Amino acid sequence: MSDVAAMTGATVTRATLRRNFWGSVWRVLLRKPSRLLGVVLMLGFAFMGSIGPMLYDRPLPRDPSVQFASPSLRHPFGTDFQGTDVFSLLVIGSRYVLLTALITAVVSVLLGTAVGLVAGFRRGALDAVLMRITDVNLTIPGLPLLLVLSTVWEFSGAWEMGLVLGLLGWGGLARAVRSQTLSLRERGFVEAARGLGLPNRHIVGRELLPPIAPYIAMNALMSLIVAVYAQVGLFFLGVMPVIGENWGVMLNRAVFDFGAMTTPARLPYMLAPLLAILLLTIAIVLVVDAMDEVFNPRLRVE
Amino acid sequence: MTLTTPMSPDGPPSVRIRDLTVVYRTAAGELPAVRDVSMDLAPGTVTGLVGESGSGKSTLALSLLNAVQPPGRISAGSVDIGGLGDVVQLRGDKLRQARGGQIGYVFQAAQNSLNPLKTVGKQLLDLGRSHDVKDLRALVAEARDLLARMGLDGARVLDSYQHELSGGMRQRVGIMLALVLNAHVVVLDEPTTALDMITQANILEIIREIHAERGLTTLVITHDIGVVAEVADEIAVMYGGRLVEQGPVRAVLGDPHHPYTRGLIQAIPRLTGDIDEAQALPGRPPTLTTIPDQGCVFRSRCALRMDVCDTVDPLFQSTGDRMVACHAVAPAATFTTTTSESEREMTPSRAWSGIGSGRREPAADGDGVVARETNEGDSA
Amino acid sequence: MITGTNIVKTFKQRGNVLDKREVPALRGVDFTIPKGGAISFIGESGCGKTTLGRIIAGLETYDDGEITIGGVDMSSLRHRAQQPHFRKVQLIHQDPYSALNPTRTIHQSLHDPLKLRARQTGRSRQWTYDRAEELLNLVGLDPGYVLPRYPHQLSGGMRQRVVIARALTVDPEVLIADEAVSMIDVSLRLGILSLLRDLRERLGVSLLYITHDVATARYIGDDGDMYVIYRGQVIERGPTETIIADPVHPYTQALLSAIPVLYGVEQPGAEQVKPVQAADAASHAEDGAHCLFSSRCPFADDRCVTEWPRLGHAHESLQDPGGRVHACFHPVQRQVAAAPIQRS
Question: So where does this one cross the membrane (chain C) (predicted)?
């Protein structure tokens, strides 16, 4: 009898735990409507980048009779020099931008977290070596390197771009994670885990990682923003070849080819990607606001 | 006007706290951390205020300086300090001058309350300037004398940074800073917590001596009854924001009336005598959100609980040599002593032996949770 | 049983390259933790008692000496081979607030060591759930309430009980409690202390209690030995009641004299001893041939500043028949402990 009772007890406990977590995430979001807005916007962008481009037939229809049309219901952001709908360009261009940002964030966060955790946990010689590598990473001049690389690669795929930006951007996180790990490993619970004979991978994964998870999650979101700005900037400045479909290329053409800065009628072509970037930034900032409460049980449970 | 002149020479000032209530704003509304506390510090005495975490003792102490920080505020009552008036009404510059000027406060973490980037001497000069002290040289000389009085090399200490001083030395520096502007009411918040036994004994001796030499009215706040026994003339016991017992130290320790005081004293292991005389107090202290809003605050842990305790707040009233807030012992006001016999008569259903046995219905806390915090894990 | 022989530990303070100071933390300490027994280390902060506790728990290295756990000499084993032995020794931290991971529920904190244990002993997954509830019951907590909660939702006393339950997950033979109640509300302290006492009785675990509070050490194990440690040296050792009633070393006497007296309930000892200098004011001469306490000792004479009294063995005059050993050239029994007032 006790077996059954205990079994159900245990199952109930675990199920409750999981439900508690999502329930509290929901509560945290509800506490400020702005957070909910952020999540909705993020989901919108995710949809835009993943499913969105599939909704359009390529090549996009051109209508030379309506070059640079003003915004209308049919064309929310007007049309471009070929009479193509700017909104559809925006949606198609979003995939490259968002995928690059995602890859950058994943690469830099994985690398930064791993290096920081290992260096802070192991200390000693390994720490010294990893931190020198981190210092080198922090001092690599990004722009010139990309210029050089662009002579070899065209960066037409999001993978190359994301990988390069990610490999350039993990140093700061590594240093921050290391310093947090160093202070955490002196805490009683880490020592207790060692005393109980729990393996190192447990200590790193279960004891050290969760307390710094909110920081890492926030860092990941913020690095999305950084990655978007970096790549759009590179294309806009013409550092990268102005080919392919993405927001940076759109901006570059709007400003340098079509004089959007001087011709008001062509302004929507430039404003559309800017607005998209702005909304994305706002969405991320709003979600970051909820992050600390989601991860910190002290704030989560009232 | 009276603020810049030194205290009147006719002896140490008195402190009269009346109906003081301090509330904290929380998600559940404004909750009282200190409720309806009235207490006198007789001039020239050392009063020891004892309480556990969440009892409101530190909040009460801060009220003496009118220094309760938001989200807390003093919502009612007065704190009259001789020669100064009602501190609760003081504002702005007058209040700032009074703090440190007439009322010296030695903070709880005197070990950490010094500025790590400035020498003690620099902090002393800052203190002097902020209180418009004209003669800073005299101030430094006074500080040096005080430190020397406490067995330290004044010149060296004034030249030191916080990290160069040991815990006991920092505590003495804290006392010096509290007294150097000639304060006559001194509040010491946990003056010996985190100090070693010998250092603690040393500091307590210093507090006692300086108190007598300078003619002070002193309030020592602590969780340790032993500290009060060593240093104080009067003891005041707080629980759940209420004052539950106050009286002369030896009388209260030798014959505690309130069940909480009794339980607290019984829970102290002794150096000699029968080891099993020490008995744990069942239940756990309330927090701000679990303090019952009507009836006795201690009833959930009390062995003498009666029906009236659930609904009626016991009055803090005089019973012989002391003040007690308890329904079970209050009628004893007509007697001068309370023997265990008379207590048993008063509360036929429960006897003192119930304390610490852990064999009563578990205390239901405010959050509706039953937690066994007794000394007996009875299921193996 | 755990024994230590001549344990030496020196901390190297990292100043600059030219100024490397060595701070002796332990100067050749011997100890025995008998099976099922209770001993205590008494001393002020910085005396080395915590370092010694951590060494015994395998959390700190030592420079010299020998530790045997269950008859096995640890220095003969490689680091990895030592681990299963040191696991029989569990340390209860002073601070129950940092001893539990704030981001993990009690359920999670208890289950990881239990799962490891189940794997080692070939027990089922179900056993881990049963065992977690059993242990929480044992330490006086309600599993249904505690398991799904985070540490911050529990009081200090409950947390310390959880910490004790977690230490018990690996079936230790020795529990080391380092000032285990100093951060807990006073009305809850005795509950934790009597829990430790109960565990010793019920599970047969040995207790090593590390504290500066002699009275709590007596409460935990009045039938065991008390070790009074001063600046890395055991200066007096013997049955707890003997040390309290008739201490002979002036430092022990000073320590006992400093304990607050509950006036009204107790009266102070008749022959209280006060050190001539505060610990922080005392200038400690370089270690050499002198008694470590001599600069603060009210009874020191020429011999004390020219010779170093070792505990017991070095000098025959330093032993007495009651099983007590000390390190003082001029042992005089003094009655310093407070005694209860006899009432009619």
Answer: none
